[in-house]
Design a protein that fits this description.
Nucleotidyltransferase, domain 5; 5-stranded mixed β-sheet; 5 helices; 49% helix; globular
């Protein structure tokens, strides 16, 4: 059920389970996790976007190691709120992961997440190389934190 909201997703978690945030890009997938209290998102890893089976295998390892009970996938809407090909791709990717991993999933609007993270890194005087290394996983944390804030607001 890809149109689940984060609050409904959180209600499906068992005590102590965490959420995994994903920022699916064309080349990379940013990965973030939250604490068991569903309060703070932390950047975790950047995965190469390749064949779905390889991505699923990497995510299964993370899911098992980190007690993950659900997924939050970034949905790249257009600035006017409409959905284009990238949003359709993210929806399909999320549905595929939901089925392959057997975990419930919610989509979260990720408009401007990469831009916000990039601005923060520039303000912190991070080099272009350093920004390239961390922007995807930091964007995933930004997306996941937005969903966590929504959960906490009720």
């Amino acid at each position: 059920m890809s149109d689940r909201n984060p609050t409904d997703l959180a209600a499906l978690l068992k005590p102590g389970q965490r959420l995994l945030g994903l920022d699916p890009g064309e080349k990379n997938i940013g990965v973030a996790i939250c604490d068991p209290g569903l309060a703070v998102a932390t950047s975790y890893a950047t995965l190469q976007r390749g064949k779905l089976a390889a991505v699923v295998a990497e995510l299964r390892t993370i899911v098992a190691a980190e007690n993950i009970g659900g997924l939050v996938v970034g949905l790249p809407r257009n600035m006017d709120g409409s959905e284009g090909p990238k949003a359709q791709s993210a929806r399909a990717f999320g549905r595929s992961l939901e089925q392959a991993l057997g975990l419930p999933m919610a989509l979260w609007d990720e408009r401007l997440s990469t831009a916000a993270v990039t601005r923060t890194l520039i303000d912190a005087d991070a080099s272009r190389r350093k920004r390239a290394e961390v922007v995807d996983k930091m964007a995933a944390a930004y997306i996941l934190q937005g969903a966590l804030d929504r959960i906490r607001a009720g």
